[in-house]
Amino acid sequence: MSLKKKLIILNTTIMLGLGSAFAIPSVKAESISDIQSERTGIQSDISDAEQVIQELKKEQSKMNSQIAQIETAMKENDKKIKDTKQEITDTEKDIDSLKKEIKALEERIAKREEVLKERALSFQESGGDVDYLEVVLGSKSFGEFVNRVGAVATIVEADREILSQQEADKADLEKKQATVEKKLQSLKDMEVELKGMQSQIEDQKAETVNMKAKIEKKESETEALKQSLENKDAGLEAQIASIRENIKKEEERKSSEKADLNRAADEVNSSNSSSKESSSSSKGEASASSSSKGESSSNSSKNSSTEKPTASKTETSSKPSSANTGSAITAGYKYIGNSTYVFGGGRTASDIANGRFDCSAFVAWAYKQAGVNLPASTGALTSAGRQVSKSQMQPGDLVFFNTYKTDGHVGIYVGGNKFIGSQSSTGVAIANMGSGYWAEKFNGRVVRVN
Questions:
Q1: 444: left (phi over 0), alpha (psi -120 to 50) or beta
Q2: How far is it, in rounded angstroms, from Cα 184 to Cα 181?
């Protein structure tokens, strides 16, 4: 084979080598660009996840606040239970005291009855069945008449005093017996209220446990999502780093091959004529120029592939429109998600300012905002207007439920089988009375406030 042919083959080999040296990194650079594009999408997902996490944290903070309110209400309800128990104890003492007084009255009345019987017996023994008038008119002389009148007057006055005391004690006895019956009824009512409070507290405890479980579940799910995205992003980052390392090694290997080929070319060229050597050198320069352009193109591709696009985010927020169902209903909207059920709450300025209501106090407060004064007890609210059938219910009507007692819960109907009220597990909230718990407890009583 001639030297010229060998030189052509060698130069062709060099050009092919130089071409492959930059072709492979270029392909790999395109792979990096694809991976980087995928990574950009994942980073956008991570950003979205971060926003979700922030929203969840806000929700968790809100839940924690609600739990704190419920726990505070539970403590206050516990205190009310203790106070009620103490009141029951005091009432029982009062009843015992009244029973002793009643027993003493009965003993005095019985003793007086014995005295009156003895008087009657003694009178009969001394005068038979003669009455006071016969005793006076039967006197034989004026002196005896006077004496008899005095004696009769003394007897009559004594009898009158005994009879008067007897009547007074009997009236006092009837009064004390009525008081005992009233206190006994009050005691029974307190026992019913006590059971109701205990039931409400159990509901609040169950709701607290449920809310805490929701918080823990959301925290776990959110952290798992975030960790999964970060792991995927880290894996892609490692993949890009690996490709870049392979590109670097490939470039180093090709550079080494290029150097070897150049040295071989120099050896061939040195044995060739000066013109051929000049021609070969010119070809080498052209090849180097082509290589430089390839490198520049590769670097440009790498630079463009590593730029991170900025993902634009748009946030939308919407607020539920207030239903136009009257100021008594809309007044309570501000307490939805921002209140606590407290048995006996809502009757002081402090309770109202802090959103602490029981069901009847909330209804009374809501209607007061509409300029209507209503009583703050469920029993009294049943007579706060006229009764209408449940088929005629309209927003603003009072609806009643049999919970721990008949008409134990009350709310304001808002339409669509829903009502707003202060519930033990949620505080002020809109609840569904068309199905579930409240549908079962709804007793059909509907009162339209006049």
A1: left
A2: 5
The Cα-based distances of 195 to 84, 201, 202 in angstroms read 11, 10, 11
Consecutive H or E run containing 57: helix 3-127
Task: Name 413's bridge partners.
Answer: 419
53 and 222 Cβ atoms separated by less than 8 Å? yes
Q: Which of 357, 394, 395 is nearest to 376 (CA)?
A: 357
How far is it, in rounded angstroms, from Cα 383 to Cα 179? 27
Determine the Cα–Cα distance for residues 165 and 111; give it in Å rounded to an integer: 12
Rounded-to-integer distance, Cα 134 and Cα 424, Å = 80
> CB 150: neighbour CB atoms within 10 A?
10
Whether pTM exceeds 0.85: no
**Rounded Cα gap, residues 31 and 37, in angstroms:** 10
- What is the CB neighbour count within 10 angstroms for residue 22? 20
| Between residues 290 and 353, the one the model is more confident about | 353
pLDDT value of residue 318: 33
Predicted confidence (pLDDT) per residue in 108-122, tens digit: 777 777 776 676 666
Are 430 and 420 spatial neighbours (Cβ–Cβ below 8 Å)? yes
Contacts 24+ apart (CB under 8 A), 348-354: none
With H, G, I as helix, E, B as strand and everything else as coil, classify residue 338: coil
Residue-wise pLDDT tens digits, 160-170? 777 777 788 77
Distance in angstroms (rounded) separating the CA atoms of residues 67 and 74? 10
Give CA–CA dist 254/145, Å, rounded: 161
Q: Which two tokens stand for residue 227?
A: 């960790």
